Automatic annotation (TrEMBL):
Lineage: Eukaryota, Viridiplantae, Streptophyta, Embryophyta, Tracheophyta
Entry protein name: Uncharacterized protein LOC111479465 isoform X1
Chain's gene name: LOC111479465
Cross-referenced Pfam families: F-box (PF00646)
F-box domain mapped to chain residues: 1-46
Coiled-coil regions, chain positions: none
TM segment ranges: none
Organism for this UniProt entry: Cucurbita maxima
GO cellular component: SCF ubiquitin ligase complex
Any GO BP: protein polyubiquitination
InterPro entries cross-referenced by the UniProt entry: F-box-like_dom_sf, F-box_dom, FBXO4
Length: 239
């Protein structure tokens, strides 16, 4: 049965189960479908699902002129599309920064954490992070940044992150993390600084077995940890 034969409420209910890309495709099928898929009802639902923190009463709280516009004034579909374009464009700064590192060049822990803070400043949602950073053709460090941001900053449950990693076919990709810890004191003498290296899959980082590595990445060089490096290649050569 075609959607045009259904009551409008029923047709909207069916369309509301689709993703944004599917709704756009459906809107090309007929005049009725176009009118249906332009509905504020659909696009408000999609917007609130993707960016649940948005304050529709005034603005989004962003300094960007595009992101600060209200969906009430411009319509939900236009708001969704413009926000998607703007966030994707601005997130590319993080992508370009990480991509300058070759597999043989580790990134320092401080630079790594600053990249994640930049994503937080953009207020990327879980869906945004998947669309921008969970792509299999990207550098593994970008996959890691997306995973870490979702887990530590957005507090997304681990099972949901693992499902997203598997759906995007990046769960088994691996990264190497190396950190130096201050040597312990022994009978009045401080021992040599300790060095640890772990190579772990993205899925394992979210699971219990990777908690210690993710904790080191979250803290960076503080307290007893003197330095942290992350690499996508084999465990680090001496440097």
């Amino acid at each position: 049965m075609g959607l045009h034969l259904l009551p409008i409420d029923a047709a909207l209910k069916i369309a509301s189960s689709l993703q944004a890309s599917d709704i756009c495709s459906l809107g090309c099928c007929s005049r009725f479908c176009k009118q249906l898929c332009d509905s504020d009802y659909l696009w408000e639902s999609l917007t609130r699902e993707r960016w649940p923190y948005i304050n529709v009463a005034s603005s989004t709280g962003s300094s960007s002129s595009t992101l600060a516009q209200s969906p009430i004034s411009m319509g939900w579909k236009s708001f969704y599309i413009q926000r998607h374009i703007e966030i994707s464009r601005r997130a590319q700064a993080a992508v370009k920064f990480i991509e300058q590192y070759s597999p043989s060049s580790p990134i320092e822990g401080g630079d790594y954490l600053r990249t994640i803070v930049g994503l937080w400043d953009l207020k990327l949602s879980f869906i945004d992070a998947q669309m921008v950073l969970f792509k299999p053709h990207l550098n593994e460090l970008l996959n890691l940044v997306g995973l870490h941001y979702c887990q530590s900053w957005l507090q997304v449950p681990g099972n949901e992150i693992i499902e997203a990693l598997e759906r995007c076919k990046i769960s088994e990709r691996q990264v190497s993390v190396k950190w130096w810890k201050l040597g312990r004191w022994f009978y009045g003498f401080r021992m040599r600084d300790e060095q640890q290296t772990r190579r772990v899959s993205l899925a394992a980082l979210v699971a219990e077995e990777g908690e210690d590595v993710l904790e080191v990445l979250s803290r960076g060089a503080v307290n007893e940890v003197l330095r942290v490096q992350v690499s996508v290649g084999e465990p680090f050569a001496s440097n």
